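Researcher: Go.
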Amino acid sequence: MDATLRRRLAAEALGTALLVVFGPGSLVAALRLGDGELDYGGLGMVALSFGLVVALVVYGYRIRVEERALRETIGEPYLRYCASHKRLIPYVY
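Model: Structure:
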């Protein structure tokens, strides 16, 4: 099995795990918090958590694509900038 296939399988497994945890997992949490009843607030919680996961996965993918394009286009000055600045979350990444 080559490295590209491994990366794709790992990405698929991670994406599926996130959707399972935040999809049906949020439904279980909503039922538990609502004493076994699912009301509009619980449905909103399910929809919000599922949408948040999808948005984060898309955003994470887009960051990788843009970082690669910046490295290829700008080159060494961008690598120096990356080494000296936090780009996404201040003081973390």
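Model: The CA atoms of residues 22 and 52 lie 9 Å apart.
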